[in-house]
Design brief:
CATH architecture of the largest domain: 3-Layer(aba) Sandwich
Pfam families: Dimerisation, Methyltransf_2
CATH topology of the largest domain: Rossmann fold
Domain O-methyltransferase dimerisation: 31-123
Structural class: alpha/beta
Protein name: O-methyltransferase domain-containing protein
Radius of gyration: 23 Å
CATH superfamily of the largest domain: Vaccinia Virus protein VP39
Shape: globular
Oligomer: single chain
Helix content: 40-55%
Bound molecules: S-adenosylmethionine
Active site: 277 (proton acceptor)
Number of domains: 2
GO molecular function, one term: O-methyltransferase activity
Length: 372
């Protein structure tokens, strides 16, 4: 059995070393066709193929494309199996699934698939959270078309690409597109689960807090996790009415609908996860000042944000935050990722004078404490 491993070396023409033209050409092709991978991934997830692989692997089974196609409603199962095999071998080449190859009865290659370690993030129900809804949102047709406006937006009149495509800011638009709003809220809640479970392991700034307000807290998943760990904390989840109306009832969490630019509920600490990166500096200061008014004299803001490295190196730990910075450029007027000194300046300019502390959490996320 020939096992394809992620690091097995392969040269396109045996005995001919790749020259610089070939290396850069292949990298350029990789960039140009990047969207093929998430589009294929989305189709494979929607067809239930990844969940089928994950379930089979719990009994130690690897599945062939024929076995996977048998569960699809396709009329021509053989044709469907051929397509499934082509989709999964692409995903194998990107380490989403593992592939082992045998020789079939007619001498043909017979591939069997199992989930690779990365695959767990695409399962619908991983206890640590999932990236499945985010994978759906990132290439959603109503969202993807906003990216076609990026160049015009940069050279234009100050409207960002999302506004150019939809005629209004992103969170206003979400109130008009219930389907996309649901995908987005699920994506945020599921992605936050992982970051928050790491936060609960690595950050100890909730001790001594009895009322914690999560401003822009989505449907309350973050506060549910925090209040389950810190039973003495009462959670107040604060978000726009179109989000709060989708929020489930959660133990230890009270939901309040409102606008953070107008007011923020009182609490001993205010949690802001992935909120400051949506705003320009002026709006961050407005929000932070509203939080300042809602805090007691010894209160603090806990902002959980991606922190940008200063040097754009070609490594995932830099590519990920710089990619998120592009997402902010596309989606939100003035939205951007920031470096640690930029966050410290925002805190100071908003009147937080006692403490600025940064704790690393996970995958470029930091917990930033601004003491009043
Ligand atoms: C990027 S999401 C972050 C959600 C959540 N904090 C998380 O990290 O999973 C931003 C959230 O801010 C909310 N939001 C945007 N503008 C708001 C406003 N003016 N007042 C209150 N919430 C707002 C959005 O509805 C959304 O739930």
């Amino acid at each position: 059995m020939d096992k394809m491993s992620p690091d097995s070396s392969w040269t396109p023409m045996a005995g001919v070393a790749a020259d610089d033209d070939e290396t850069t050409w292949l990298r350029a092709q990789e960039l140009i066709w990047t969207c093929v991978v998430p589009m294929t991934l989305k189709a494979v997830m929607n067809l239930g193929l990844l969940d089928a692989l994950i379930n089979a692997a719990t009994d130690g089974r690897a599945l062939t494309a024929d076995e996977l196609a048998a569960q699809l409603p396709a009329v021509d199962k053989a044709e469907a199996a051929f397509s499934v095999d082509r989709m999964l071998r692409l995903l194998a080449s990107f380490n989403v699934v593992n592939c082992s190859t045998d020789t079939g009865p007619g001498g043909e290659a017979l591939r069997r698939y199992t989930p690779a370690p990365m695959c767990r993030w695409f399962a619908g129900n991983h206890p640590q959270g999932s990236l499945a809804s985010l994978a759906m949102f990132a290439v959603d047709e109503d969202y993807l078309r906003t990216w076609h406006q990026l160049g015009a937006a940069v050279a234009g009149d100050g409207q960002v690409a999302f506004e150019k495509a939809n005629g209004m800011p992103m969170f206003e638009y979400m109130g008009t597109n219930r389907r996309l709003n649901t995908v987005f809220n699920q994506a945020m809640a599921q992605q936050s689960k992982m970051v928050i479970s790491k936060l609960l392991e690595r950050f100890h700034g909730f001790n001594g807090v009895s009322v914690l307000v999560d401003v822009g807290g989505g449907t309350g998943a973050t506060l549910e996790m925090i209040t389950s760990r810190y039973k003495h904390i009462t959670g107040v989840n604060y978000d726009l009415p179109n989000v709060i109306c989708q929020a489930p009832s959660l133990p230890g969490v009270k939901h309040i609908a409102g606008n953070m630019f107008e007011s923020v509920p009182n609490g001993e600490a205010i949690f802001l996860k992935s909120i400051l990166h949506l705003q320009n500096d002026e709006d961050c200061i407005k929000i932070l000042k509203k939080c300042h008014q809602a805090l007691p004299p010894n209160g603090k803001v806990i902002a959980v944000e991606i922190v940008l490295p200063t040097i754009p190196e070609a490594v995932p730990a830099a590519q990920n935050p710089f990619r998120m910075d592009m997402v902010m450029l596309n989606n939100h007027r003035g939205g951007k990722e920031r470096t640690e000194p930029e966050f410290a300046k925002l805190a100071k300019d908003s009147g937080y004078t006692s403490v600025f502390r940064a704790t690393y959490i996970f995958a470029n996320y930091w917990a930033l404490e601004f003491g009043k």
